[in-house]
C-alpha cells in the first residue's frame, strides 16, 4: 500500500509517547529483560529500559525484504538470551502490516509485545501501543528527517517565485 499522507514524529513527541508506554507497562512488570526489534525499536527500548530500570537488553533483527527472497521475512539476529520470551518485553517503534511482529511473536510466543504506534492491520499483533495511525499514513520518525531551510514568503515574492 502506498502512503498518501505523512505523520512527522519529533524527538520530544517520541520521548513523551515512550514515557506514556512505560507508565502503562510498569504494573505489568517487572520484566526479566527487553528485546528490541532493530533498528526502529532500539531507541524506544532504551527509553523504556531507563524508565523500567531494566538492564538486560536483547535484540532481534527481522529483514522483511532482500533481493533474493522478496517478501519472505527472515530473522538475521536471534534473541538468544530471551528463550521463548517468557518474562520479556518486546519493543518496536511501529506495527504496519504486522509481518515483522508476526515473525517476532512466533519466535518469542511468551513475550509481551509493545510498540509506540500501530496501524489497523498490525494492531491485533500487539499487546499494547500508544497511538493508532491510519493505514495510509507513513510515519516519519525523528531519525528519518532533518530541519530544512525554507525561504520567507516575502523573499519568495521578490524573487517572483
Ligand atoms: O508491520 P510491518 O509492515 O512489518 O512494518 C513495521 C516494521 O517496519 C519498520 O522496520 P523496517 O523493517 O523498515 O526496518 P528498520 O526498523 O531497521 O527501519 C518498523 O520499524 C517496524 O519494525
Ligand atoms: N518509517 C516508517 N517505516 C515503516 N515501515 C512500515 N511502515 C512504516 C512507516 O509508516 N514509517
Ligand atoms: Mg523496524
From TrEMBL:
It is an enzyme of class 2 (transferase). One of its GO terms (cellular component) is cytosol. Its EC number is 2.4.2.22. GO terms for biological process: GMP salvage; IMP salvage; purine ribonucleoside salvage; XMP salvage. Pathway: Purine metabolism; GMP biosynthesis via salvage pathway; GMP from guanine: step 1/1; Purine metabolism; XMP biosynthesis via salvage pathway; XMP from xanthine: step 1/1. Keywords: Cell membrane, Glycosyltransferase, Magnesium, Membrane, Metal-binding, Purine salvage, Transferase. It is a peripheral membrane protein. Its cofactor is Mg(2+). Xanthine binds at residues 96, 139. It catalyses: IMP + diphosphate = hypoxanthine + 5-phospho-alpha-D-ribose 1-diphosphate; XMP + diphosphate = xanthine + 5-phospho-alpha-D-ribose 1-diphosphate; GMP + diphosphate = guanine + 5-phospho-alpha-D-ribose 1-diphosphate. It is found in: Cell membrane. GMP binds at residues 96-100, 138-139. InterPro entries: PRTase-like, PRTase_dom, Xanthine_Guanine_PRibTrfase. Guanine binds at residues 96, 139. Purine salvage pathway enzyme that catalyzes the transfer of the ribosyl-5-phosphate group from 5-phospho-alpha-D-ribose 1-diphosphate (PRPP) to the N9 position of the 6-oxopurines guanine and xanthine to form the corresponding ribonucleotides GMP (guanosine 5'-monophosphate) and XMP (xanthosine 5'-monophosphate), with the release of PPi. To a lesser extent, also acts on hypoxanthine. HAMAP family: XGPRT. This is Xanthine-guanine phosphoribosyltransferase. The gene is gpt.
Amino acid at each position: 500500500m502506498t502512503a498518501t499522507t505523512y505523520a512527522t514524529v519529533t524527538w520530544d513527541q517520541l520521548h513523551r509517547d515512550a514515557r506514556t508506554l512505560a507508565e502503562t507497562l510498569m504494573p505489568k512488570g517487572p520484566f526479566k529483560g527487553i528485546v528490541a526489534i532493530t533498528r526502529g525499536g532500539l531507541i524506544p527500548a532504551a527509553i523504556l529500559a531507563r524508565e523500567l530500570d531494566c538492564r538486560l537488553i536483547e535484540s532481534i533483527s527481522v529483514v522483511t525484504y532482500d533481493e533474493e527472497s522478496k517478501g519472505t521475512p527472515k530473522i538475521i539476529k536471534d534473541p538468544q538470551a530471551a528463550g521463548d520470551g517468557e518474562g520479556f518485553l518486546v519493543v518496536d517503534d511501529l506495527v504496519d502490516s504486522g509481518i515483522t511482529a508476526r515473525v517476532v511473536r512466533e519466535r518469542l510466543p511468551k513475550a509481551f509485545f509493545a510498540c509506540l504506534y500501530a496501524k489497523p492491520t498490525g494492531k491485533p499483533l500487539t499487546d499494547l501501543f500508544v497511538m493508532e495511525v491510519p493505514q495510509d499514513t507513513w510515519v516519519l520518525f525523528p531519525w528519518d528527517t532533518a530541519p530544512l531551510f525554507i525561504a520567507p514568503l516575502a523573499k519568495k515574492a521578490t524573487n517572483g517565485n
